[in-house]
Structure prediction request, 468 residues.
Amino acid sequence: MKQERDTVYYLEKAPVSKAIAHMSVPMILGMVVNMIYNIADAYFIGRLNNTAMLAAITLALPFTAVLMAVGQIYGIGGSTYISRLLGEKNNSQAAKASSVNFYLSLLSGLVFLFLCLPFLSPILKLLGANGETAQYTKDFILIYAVGSPFVIANFTLAETVRAEGASTQSMAGMVISVAVNIVLDPVFIFTLKMNVMGAALATVAGNVVAVIYYVWFLKKKSSVQSVSLKDFQPSKEMLTNIFKVGISAFLLNVFLVVSSLMFNNYSMFYGDNVVAAFGVANRVVQICDFIGMGLYTGIVPLIAYTYSSGNQRRLEKVLKTTAWYLFIIIAVLAVILLLLRSQVIGLFSVDAAVIHAGVEILTALLVSTLFAGFSGLFTSMFQSFGKGIQSNIMSAARGVALIPIIVFGNMMFGLNGVIWSLPVSEFCACFIGLLLWVGSRKTILSDSGCVVYSEESSETVPRNIPQV
Prediction:
């Protein structure tokens, strides 16, 4: 069918640069749109001139990250498995895997909801919310918890749609979600006077609309994936392939949540202005982070498909080209934001204390963003190959490294030690990723099989395609 021919072509035969652009540009655009939403959310709350509310949506970030982590169990684990199945030309199994992904994500959301509701007070303490910020944080996460089935399903479906090369359609769902969100934000926050609860409700509404769009696409347009209940046929092999990679994506986000919790709690020692400043700076640096993330996550289906099809030469070119693109894009953006950091922070707050702390925090985050980009690339590579051990090590490294560093930094250098613990920990994780890749590169590439590849004709002749 035409849909299959249009999307799988980019995974299999398109020139490498064209394939990377097709898979990554829509993902980057989707990430940028999502970043605009995050900035808009902070902007609208900031217009209320209530530092406690601005701090509350920052303290809630780890909670929302857990939802994303659960979604990526199926999104990353399932999408890489689906792409590898398509590389093996096993379309019937790919359809079953996509159906299993979808329904398990909804079920996980329901379980998450019923686990959270009785424990909201302990969760608030864990997030570091106290005093005036506690009630605002509770209002925010309560709405997220109620909408968790749709939030998790949205993360899952955005990834699985891209698994067949339909990156534009994946981006469309992200844009729809953010557009609904931004339109409803001022209505709920100002008109209905729901404050932070309104911001959360707008987000959940955007996720619901996006899920509806993705389900429509998979039912009506996709020829290789399914959301039909008759295709919900989980097997031990399928679940193993989904979870061995999906768990690494989950652990990565969980460890990052642990890091955020530690940073939140240490930041609270220095006042609401530091917490608010971190929230603003974190949203600004997402300009670099999201674009880099869009690049290295956008090419995950391309890596997985190429690896499974056995096209070693094409695989190596994809990896090298992506690494260069990642370095150039992040470096240029980071330098621009570094030069304008005072003006950028001033857009979000008129509080002199917030601006002063925000400038220092933004500087540290910009330094760390290049290391974070390559850490993410190494993680995505191992996930694409279906290498659970390496991807799990990377996930642990990116989160665990911060714990001793932030404790030591706070003891020795106070607030500056807390702030600069972020780039130090990302550097350590990046170095570990490099060591893992150097140590396992030959084995991974030899496992992918050997092919004859012609750049001019873009034809592949696979031999000994492995079962991944």
